[in-house]
Design goal:
The complex is a heterodimer. Chain A has one domain (about 15-145, about 165-285). Chain A is mainly alpha-helical. In chain A, about 70% of the residues lie in helices and about 10% in strands. In chain A, helix 6 runs antiparallel to helix 7 (about 195-205). Chain A starts with a strand and ends with a strand. The model of chain A has no long low-confidence stretch (mean pLDDT about 85). Chain B folds into two domains: about 5-210, Sandwich (Immunoglobulin-like), CATH 2.60.40; about 215-250, no CATH class. In chain B, helix 4 (about 215-225) crosses helix 5. Mean pLDDT of chain B is about 85; it is low at about 20-25. The chains are: A mainly alpha, B alpha+beta. At the A-B interface, strand 1, helix 3, helix 8, helix 9 and strand 5 of A face strand 5, strand 6, helix 3, helix 4 and helix 5 of B.
Chain lengths: ~300, ~250
């Protein structure tokens, strides 16, 4: 059953899209990951133009983050103050990111930039996850717990602010910088950036783990909303129909995944996810390295 | 109305025209389409139109279909540090977005090269002009021109082979025009040439509209003409959907 996507301007099988949404949603429910970093490359593999995949995926993440943040909000696990500071950086970052996106698109290099960013990030994440799950499977526990209130260079920075919920008194510079980096990534890769933000919040900002996920989801809503808006205005690469279909599949998949996660032991599956991430990374690398059948491509087309 | 019925109706109309005794000069070539419009809707996977025509006198018939003009950039990939990167680019202006030719026998058998050249009949004679030709060598331009045509052929928008024009009687002819799923929208020009004695004896132009219809068209126009509002609505819809999902699955 083909459906014509009005902004992508091509027909795609609707069942395939629902399946993709459901599958990636299931994984994100199972592992508590955003899924954007899997969905965007998969959309590219099925023939959606990379620029449209990125813009549309940002739009979909707005929805999944809203539904994700509600549960954390109800439990009081969102540090709104920290979220707002992150958001300031995120707003600037996503603006810079979309401008860079538009510039690279004009040069005809945006597809390459998207794929290269994915190769780098998927490679790093996949490798880290694989090592981590291997370590857990071999029953070798990690080094002792982190010292909570150890002072290091971040505490020497100016513009300190108190974050009651996170029980922190730190400079606003690190969260703004983290927000900025995540904003740029969201704009160029169509991801929420949780995979960068969550570790950064835990290891750099030393935020309590309980508020990390809720706060990161809270800020992701606004950053991806900003990316959606800017992509729609500057590049017209947000396909609402595509986003809604992915969403429909994703919502159901995420619920099934969340339920399955309470019954399945994680390490082997986490290793499996790592292998999946790595194989997507390899496939993208292959696309970049293998000699293409056609060396010439038609770039941007303007119809009169 | 099914395609078969439409086809039959067009055939009858053409036959009637052929029989009606009007003044010969104006009626040298009469052409009609099985549908005056190609509508791109939700389930569009391409379509096929039938063109009917009648010629007042015997001759060969060539049908050329041209899509709306467009500017396109062709880029050549080169290997940089192991990765294939778009490097050299040539911008072409005013090339047809769609181009097919059909004839009742191989064009070269009845149409001299110079005539085909002037009227751009056949891919080899299609005028593909770069934006600034002085920047490139003749060899480069030839390569990029061929690459453009090759890419268009792969997309199914330039037909590799010359289609068939079938004569149903010495005067009445028919051909099919196939539009793929990715057919560009706009106004198409369909040129029908009647060739006699190695020259054009009659020429007829029909315009064909290819348009998006229904919600797809509205969404596309909305996304391009009111981009900011579209962006805001996209966000709003996503937020609503996310909220609904969290409410629907709350009891878990």
């Amino acid at each position: 059953m083909e459906i014509y996507l009005p902004v992508a301007e091509l027909s795609v099988n609707i069942l395939l899209l629902l399946g993709l949404g459901g599958g990636v949603g299931f994984l994100s429910g199972l592992f508590g990951v955003g899924g954007g970093f899997l969905m965007t490359p998969l959309l590219i593999f099925i023939g959606i133009p990379p620029a449209v995949a990125v813009g549309t995926e940002a739009n979909q993440i707005v929805a999944s983050s809203v539904s994700g943040v509600m549960a954390h909000w109800r439990r009081g696990n969102v540090d709104f103050k920290m979220g707002s500071v992150l958001m300031v950086g995120g707003a600037i970052g996503s603006f810079v990111g979309v401008s860079l996106f538009t510039y690279l698109r004009g040069l005809g290099q945006i597809d390459l930039a998207i794929k290269l960013s994915y190769v780098v990030f998927l490679g790093i994440i996949g490798a880290l996850m694989l090592v981590e799950s291997a370590r857990v499977m071999m029953m070798r526990p990690r080094q002792g717990p982190m010292k909570k209130h150890q002072h290091y260079w971040i505490h020497g920075l100016p513009f300190k602010m108190r974050f009651r919920k996170s029980r922190l008194y730190i400079s606003v510079i690190p969260p703004v910088v983290i927000g900025f980096v995540v904003g740029v990534l969201a704009a160029i890769m169509g991801v929420g950036g949780g995979f960068i933000m969550v570790p950064a919040m835990i290891y750099l900002l030393r935020m309590p783990t309980a508020v990390v996920v809720g706060t990161s989801l809270f800020q992701i809503i606004f950053v991806t909303a900003n990316v959606t808006f800017l992509q729609a205005v500057q590049n017209q690469t947000v396909d609402v129909v595509l986003a809604l279909i992915l969403l429909a599949g994703g919502v159901i998949g995420a619920q099934l995944g969340a339920r399955a996660s309470t019954q399945i032991r994680g390490e082997q599956l986490r290793g499996l996810l790592a292998l999946m991430v790595l194989s997507v990374c390899l496939r993208l690398t292959y696309e970049l390295v293998a000699t293409p059948a056609e060396l010439y491509v038609i770039g941007r087309v303007v119809t009169h | 109305m099914s395609a078969a019925v439409r086809t039959l109706a067009a055939l009858l109309a053409a036959a009637l025209l052929l029989m009606s005794p009007r003044d010969a000069a104006a009626q040298e070539l009469v052409v009609d389409l099985s549908d005056p419009l190609v509508a791109i809707t939700t389930g569009f996977v391409g379509t096929r139109l039938v063109l009917f025509g009648s010629a007042e006198s015997r001759g060969d018939v060539v049908v050329v279909v041209r899509g709306p003009l467009q500017d396109a950039v062709v880029r050549r990939k080169e290997r940089v540090a192991g990765i294939w990167v778009n490097r050299t680019e040539v911008a072409f202006r005013n090339i047809p977005s769609f181009y097919t030719v059909a004839a009742n026998r191989p064009v070269a058998e009845f149409l001299p090269k110079d005539v085909a050249d002037i009227h751009e009949i056949g891919l080899a004679n299609l005028e593909v002009l770069p934006e600034d030709p002085d920047k490139y060598s003749a060899e480069q331009l030839h390569e990029f021109r061929e690459a453009l045509i090759r890419n268009k052929q792969r997309e199914g928008l330039y037909k590799r082979d010359v289609g068939n024009v079938i004569f149903l009687s010495p005067r009445l002819f028919r051909t099919a025009i196939v539009f793929p799923a990715n057919t560009p929208v706009g106004t198409y020009g369909i040129e029908v040439y009647l060739i006699r004695n190695a020259d054009i004896a009659a020429h007829h132009t029909t315009l064909l509209n290819v348009r998006k219809f229904g919600i797809e068209a509205s969404l596309y126009d909305f996304a391009h003409q009111h981009a900011a509002l579209y962006g805001l609505l996209a966000i709003l819809i996503a937020m609503m959907a996310g909220w609904l999902a969290s409410v629907a699955f709350r009891q878990r």
